[in-house]
């Protein structure tokens, strides 16, 4: 077709072609998985997708987590199964409920879980806005009740952090706390799970216990260390160790933590002592159980009864540090060279080189918190670190 000559109005103006409508419609929308029909995507990340779904007859809503096809492997399927089994073994109202598991025709696997309304604890725990003591005690009491039930059921969460603690805020029900994302939980009685055998580093670098960093056996005390890090952050507005994730990991393994009162005024000696005991390098020196920690917190004097926290509106939250601070990549090999190493030559055999496992970026109604985790075997570390 012959083009018409430009008019006077066309001169000096850039004419851009009109983009064709996008044809990329999610094929899963409207699909029925088990008893639920998928209605919208509410989260997406490196490991998979999260959807909101509804039961067509009774109207019950649920969240469905689906692994990406390109990363489906027996290990990832096992991770989903571990999460479902761990949650159902606990049977506690403070643990997110998982009530379905299946696979799509293309081989992707999924789990069906309750849809939560509210915010992750990370929306409440941030710099420049310390949580008041009464809210800290309220959050910790509910967390410890759920954590104690998990430990009694033989489950160690292994990835406790503010993003995995959900403050449920829904109409007509009391505010409550739920622990989510048991995907790397270790069933203490299991011996056939390749993702959680001893000798592997699995967790989120900024909230890992020293024994996790060393690749040693985990136990309920591992969760208590992470809880101590969270308690420190809620009381002071910051974590005890700062820097890149690899630096924080070495600090958590080798350096003594500061007392919370050195970072924020008004923290009692009793709270200082509890936090420092939770952050003991030796797991045997930490409190005996979650229930023991809960009882000590109940003895802390308060001005008013414990109450749920109040989050700032999202647009008022401070700008967070780059996500690079919470991840570990192959480039950290150069950074580690600048960190003084312990004198033992066995340090070079430590499993500190990380492979990324990116997680879902959740929507505002659900936060399963599948964020960056580190996982590597000592054998892989030795191979990749060989100079």
TrEMBL record:
Span of domain Protein kinase: 36-310
SMART domains: S_TKc
SUPFAM superfamilies assigned: Protein kinase-like (PK-like) (SSF56112)
Top-level taxon of the source organism: Bacteria
Sorted UniProt keywords: ATP-binding, Kinase, Nucleotide-binding, Serine/threonine-protein kinase, Transferase
Pfam families with a match to the protein in the record: Pkinase
Keyword ATP-binding recorded: yes
Binding site for ATP: 65
Gene Ontology MF terms: protein serine/threonine kinase activity
UniProt xrefs under InterPro entries: Kinase-like_dom_sf (IPR011009), Prot_kinase_dom (IPR000719), Protein_kinase_ATP_BS (IPR017441), Ser/Thr_kinase_AS (IPR008271)
Protein name: Serine/threonine protein kinase
């Amino acid at each position: 077709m012959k083009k018409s000559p430009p008019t006077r109005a066309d001169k000096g103006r850039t004419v851009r072609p009109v983009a064709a409508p996008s044809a990329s419609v999610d094929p899963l929308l409207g699909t029925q998985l088990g008893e639920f029909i998928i209605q919208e995507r509410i989260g997406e990340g490196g490991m998979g997708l999260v959807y909101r779904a509804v039961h067509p007859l009774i109207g019950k809503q649920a969240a469905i987590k689906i692994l990406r096809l390109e990363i489906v492997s027996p290990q990832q399927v096992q991770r989903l199964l571990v999460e479902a089994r761990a949650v159902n073994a606990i049977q506690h109202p403070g643990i997110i409920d998982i009530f379905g598991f299946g696979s799509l025709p293309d081989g992707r696997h999924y789990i069906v879980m309750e849809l939560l309304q509210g915010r992750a604890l990370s929306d409440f725990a941030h710099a420049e806005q310390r949580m008041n003591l009464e809210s800290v005690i309220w959050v910790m009491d509910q967390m410890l009740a759920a954590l104690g039930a998990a430990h009694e059921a033989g489950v160690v969460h292994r990835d406790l952090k503010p993003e995995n603690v959900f403050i449920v805020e829904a109409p007509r029900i009391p505010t409550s706390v739920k622990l989510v994302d048991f995907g790397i939980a270790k069933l203490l009685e299991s011996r056939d799970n390749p993702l959680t055998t001893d000798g592997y580093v699995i967790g989120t670098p900024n909230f890992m216990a020293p024994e996790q960093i060393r690749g040693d056996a985990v136990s309920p005390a591992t969760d208590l260390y992470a809880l101590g890090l969270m308690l420190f952050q809620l009381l002071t507005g910051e974590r005890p160790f700062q820097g890149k994730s690899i630096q924080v990991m070495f600090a958590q393994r080798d350096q003594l933590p500061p007392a919370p009162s050195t970072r924020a005024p008004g923290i009692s000696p009793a709270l200082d002592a509890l936090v420092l005991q939770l952050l003991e390098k030796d797991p045997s020196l930490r409190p005996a159980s979650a229930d023991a920690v809960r009882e000590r917190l109940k003895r802390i004097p308060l001005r008013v009864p414990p109450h749920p926290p109040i989050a700032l509106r999202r647009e008022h939250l401070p700008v967070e540090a780059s996500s690079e601070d919470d991840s570990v990549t192959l480039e950290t090999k150069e950074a580690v060279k600048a960190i003084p190493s312990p004198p033992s030559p066995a340090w070079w055999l430590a499993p500190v080189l990380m492979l990324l496992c990116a997680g879902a970026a959740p929507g505002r109604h659900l936060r399963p918190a599948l964020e960056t985790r580190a996982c590597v075997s000592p054998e892989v570390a030795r191979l990749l670190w060989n100079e």
